[in-house]
Specification:
Layout: E1 2-6, H1 12-25, E2 31-37, H2 42-51, E3 58-64, H3 67-70, H4 90-93, E4 100-104, E5 108-110, H5 115-118, E6 127-131, H6 137-140, E7 150-158, H7 159-164, H8 167-177, H9 185-194, E8 199-200, E9 207-208, H10 210-213, H11 215-218, H12 224-232, E10 236-238, H13 255-262, E11 283-286, H14 290-301, E12 308-310, E13 320-321, E14 324-327, H15 329-333, E15 340-344, H16 349-358, E16 366-369
Helix pairs in contact: 8-9
Length: about 375
């Protein structure tokens, strides 16, 4: 089975978690990993391979793509990197004897044996994917309906068809004539070229946060029973959008799944769990709703202590959540203290920040982190 991914130096860690999740659920003992990149050194390549040296059935191939090759293709959305464009070159990069490949983003956790999707006959189709049912990009690209637009984070590519029908040339031609329509990089290019002519996978093979926020869009095409199955038992958890599980404050519904894998990987046991955590001390969570509780659970999985919760609701003061006390803001912010970190875990974070400024709280020793 052939797996491809695109990464840069920063994403080595996240990619390794994704690969570990594949290993954890895949029965087939022969996996070929094709890593597309622009900035990895030989040392980086050896480091990634060494993470999985205990799995002899896993082999790596690295492909460096020079910048001039992808300079024609635009990247617009601020949470995307140029590496997302590399998948457009897979048919040219991989040896001709490889007929198909599963492309998978690094912000993904696999929960089911990939052989179950690998063995699907994609026949005459250029690729297989899961529809991206929320949003308006299908209209921007002039597609007939929502079901014609797919998310490119997890796709099965028919490399033979891409080669014989010269799809890279089609991608370049579409980009040259439709640059103003391209918002999500190669995903829009792929959809603009294929125009709905691709095999629909079961929606469990690319479950994003949006499924929980846009249930009505899902039910336009699938049953209530299918929704319950997909939302509770995803085969692929895709942490799409800007804020990822490795950001302290993120709205990813199943971010705990990422940490369950990471904490068991020996390579990262002494590494910071979150990008922002190094300078965090005496952590308090502002907000006792579901988001605040989710953040607490994520920290608890990683054995990071939360000193307390803070809430503006006086009825919650003195109560305990997960055996952690809820304080009024004045008791924490107006008292002499060592440096603390305040995580504002609320959809009203902007209002909370403005209110803190009006109340003249002493924030000299407070590091504030809020959702972007």
């Amino acid at each position: 089975m052939h797996i491809a991914c695109s990464i840069n130096k920063k994403y080595i860690k996240y990619c390794s978690v994704m690969l570990q999740s594949i290993i954890n659920h895949t029965i087939k003992k022969e996996l070929f990993i094709h890593v597309l990149h622009n900035d990895l050194t030989i040392k980086d390549e050896i480091f990634l391979k060494d993470i999985f040296k205990g799995y002899p059935f896993l082999s790596f191939n690295f492909y460096k793509i020079e910048r001039e090759k992808f300079s024609i293709f635009p990247v617009v959305a601020d949470h995307l990197t140029v590496e997302t464009l590399f998948r457009l070159f897979l048919a040219e990069l991989l040896p001709n004897n490889i007929e198909k490949v599963i492309y998978i983003d690094s912000d993904i956790v696999v929960k089911e044996d990939l052989l179950n999707v690998w063995n699907i006959d994609i026949g005459k189709y250029p690729l297989a994917a899961v529809p991206n049912l929320e949003g308006v990009m299908y209209r921007v690209l002039g597609l007939k309906e929502k079901n014609d637009y797919f998310n490119a984070g997890f796709i099965v590519i028919n490399l033979n068809k891409w080669r014989t029908e010269k799809y890279l040339e089609k991608f370049i031609k579409f980009t040259e004539g439709n640059r103003e329509k391209i918002i999500f990089g190669d995903q829009d290019i792929l959809n603009g070229v294929l125009r709905g002519d691709w095999l629909r996978l079961h929606p469990k093979w690319n479950v994003q946060n949006s499924i929980y926020s846009f249930k009505e869009d899902f039910l336009e095409y699938y049953s209530e029973e299918c929704y319950e199955t997909v939302s509770n038992y995803p085969a692929i958890i895709h942490y799409s959008s800007k804020l990822k599980p490795w950001n302290i404050l993120n709205y990813q519904i199943k971010s705990e799944e990422y940490f369950h894998i990471l904490k068991k990987m020996e390579t990262w046991e002494d590494d910071s769990i979150y990008e922002e955590i190094d300078s965090c001390k005496n952590i308090f969570i502002f907000g006792t709703g579901e988001f605040g509780k989710k953040v607490y659970r994520a920290f608890n999985i990683c054995n990071i202590e939360i000193k307390g919760f803070i809430d503006n609701d006086s009825e919650r003061w003195g109560n305990y959540i997960y055996n952690v006390k809820v304080y009024p803001p004045t008791e924490v912010l107006n008292e002499p203290q060592e440096k603390i970190t305040l995580l504002i875990c609320s959809m009203y974070h902007n209002e909370i920040l403005k209110n803190m400024q009006k109340q003249n709280y002493d924030l000299t020793n407070v590091k504030i982190i809020s959702p972007e």
